């Protein structure tokens, strides 16, 4: 970010602006592309039966996620403050009440909760960089890779240490405010990630059960689609796009007035979706060829990928590079998870950015131990959705983010005056604007409400009533 004037009207930002449209796209792509694409998408798709889940996921990404991402950027840029203050300000201007700041506050809380478990899994990725580098995957078979992941997750000391390292790194970057360097690095990371994924795809096509994998991902079997999996697909769409918690809004606050919001959002959503689908196509052929369990959950990629790297030429090199890239992708997402809270603390309590980052990072680090212990000491302590990590993930992805998204669409579609959104989207009032408006006013909020009602069993009841 650089300190410049925004030139073309609009409120001035308290923090300066992105140096270019590309810088913003890179930052939002860095936020969106992360463990959600490579770790979570395959395992959630595996647990929810594949094809039909993927179809609902894609519908949610483009029908709900894309308009919400545009709305978030729009609100951030119009408010030009942290998400809490932006929503308070815009709420007052457009709707006569500052209570809309609740959207920002719930986002700050969601960021804390998500980062607490995100950091633990990112820690595993860091551990795998070293395992791969040490040649631990070489010639591995299904049993060996299972033992490898079990020995890591079984030790709270090891997972705790990796979690500490990852949080430390995240706080360091946020505190120093060196995101700008990382933005540039994203230019290399995303293409490099795609190249290695394509390479892995080649391995899966030749050595895996590729046809089975493709069928699993793309042949919808609606009998496998429960109300719970529809909710999981929607939750995953929110999680992977980093929407519903003000993160994109926080970044939008630094966006110059002349940048096109729809084009920006569209390119980010496409890149994010391509990486998730590629990961799925890489993982499942290996899972099926080696008798791994597609419903294995969070361990899934940590079992499947070492099998590929361990048995392909130059696997040690590519494996190490791949986990480094995923670790880096996780870092750029983690930074964005802290941004709403840090920007809010800096603007509200007049603390320095460094101090705010350290304090917030410490709270998240402590909270993260609930997830560290979920795999070992507390693995038998399950309630509601399962372990602590399962519950944090479910609560944030499937409830808090969609609820945040719902409030954002209601605000943008119904509370904010039409002229304001026309001006901010800057695409005229033609078809593109109309499409966004219909998606934002009707499709996205209705979809979220229906999926919620369905998940708690009320939809069938309502349908029967009419
Ligand atoms: N989108 C990130 C991923 O797919 O890994 C995770 C994430 C980042 C979720 C930022 C929410 C958020 F605000």
How would you portray this structure in words?
The protein is mainly alpha-helical. The protein has one domain (about 20-465): Up-down Bundle (Amino acid/polyamine transporter I). The protein has helices at about 20-30, 35-45, 50-80, 85-95, 100-135, 140-155, 155-175, 180-205, 210-220, 225-240, 245-250, 260-290, 300-310, 315-350, 355-375, 390-415, 420-425, 430-455, 460-465. It starts with 20 loop residues before the first helix and ends with a helix. 4-fluoro-L-phenylalanine binds near residues 239 and 242.
How does the SSE layout of this entry go?
Elements: H1 21-32, H2 35-47, H3 51-79, H4 83-95, H5 101-133, H6 142-153, H7 156-176, H8 179-207, H9 210-218, H10 227-241, H11 247-252, H12 261-289, H13 300-311, H14 315-349, H15 353-374, H16 388-415, H17 418-425, H18 431-455, H19 458-465
Helix pairs in contact: 1-8, 1-12, 1-14, 2-10, 2-12, 3-4, 3-9, 3-10, 3-12, 3-16, 3-18, 4-5, 5-7, 5-14, 5-15, 5-16, 6-13, 7-14, 7-15, 8-12, 8-14, 9-12, 10-16, 10-18, 12-13, 13-14, 14-15, 16-18
The protein binds 4-fluoro-L-phenylalanine.
């Amino acid at each position: 970010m650089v300190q410049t004037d925004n030139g073309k009207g609009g409120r001035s930002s308290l923090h300066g602006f992105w140096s270019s449209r590309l810088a913003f796209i890179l930052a939002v792509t860095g936020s969106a592309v992360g463990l959600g694409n490579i770790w979570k998408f395959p395992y959630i798709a595996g647990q929810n039966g594949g094809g039909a889940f993927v179809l609902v996921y894609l519908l949610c990404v483009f029908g709900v996620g894309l308009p919400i991402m545009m709305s978030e950027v729009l609100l951030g840029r119009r408010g030009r403050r942290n998400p809490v203050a932006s929503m308070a300000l815009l709420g007052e201007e457009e709707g006569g009440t500052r209570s809309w700041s609740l959207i920002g506050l719930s986002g700050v809380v969601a960021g804390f909760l998500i980062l607490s478990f995100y950091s633990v899994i990112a820690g595993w990725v860091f551990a795998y960089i070293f395992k791969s580098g040490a040649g631990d995957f070489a010639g591995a078979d299904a049993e060996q890779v299972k033992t490898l992941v079990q020995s890591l997750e079984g030790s709270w000391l090891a997972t705790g240490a990796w979690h500490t390292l990852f949080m430390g790194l995240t706080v360091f970057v946020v505190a120093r405010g060196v995101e700008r360097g990382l933005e540039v690095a994203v230019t290399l990371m995303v293409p490099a990630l795609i190249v290695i994924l394509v390479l892995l795809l080649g391995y899966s096509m030749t050595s895996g059960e590729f046809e089975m994998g493709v069928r699993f991902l793309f042949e919808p079997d609606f009998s496998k689609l429960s109300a719970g999996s529809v909710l999981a697909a929607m939750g995953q769409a929110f999680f992977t796009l980093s929407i519903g918690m003000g993160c994109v809004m926080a970044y939008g606050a630094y966006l110059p007035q002349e940048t096109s919001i729809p084009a920006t959002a569209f390119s980010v959503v496409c890149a994010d979706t391509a990486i998730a689908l590629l990961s799925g196509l890489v993982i499942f052929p290996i899972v099926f060829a080696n008798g791994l369990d597609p419903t294995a959950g969070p361990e899934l990629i940590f079992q499947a990928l070492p099998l590929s790297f361990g048995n392909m030429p130059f696997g040690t090199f590519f494996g190490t590079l791949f986990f480094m890239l995923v670790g880096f992708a996780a870092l750029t997402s983690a930074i964005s998870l802290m941004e709403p809270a840090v920007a809010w603390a800096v603007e509200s309590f007049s603390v320095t950015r460094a101090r705010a980052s350290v304090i917030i990072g410490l709270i998240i680090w402590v909270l993260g131990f609930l997830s560290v212990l979920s795999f070992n000491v507390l693995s038998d302590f399950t309630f509601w959705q399962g372990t602590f990590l399962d519950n944090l993930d479910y609560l944030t992805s499937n409830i808090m983010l969609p609820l945040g998204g719902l409030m954002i669409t209601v605000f943008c579609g119904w509370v904010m005056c039409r002229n304001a959104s026309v001006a901010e989207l800057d695409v005229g009032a033609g078809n593109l604007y109309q499409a966004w408006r219909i998606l934002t006013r009707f499709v996205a909020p209705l979809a979220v409400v229906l999926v919620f009602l369905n998940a708690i069993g009320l939809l069938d009841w309502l349908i029967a009533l009419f």
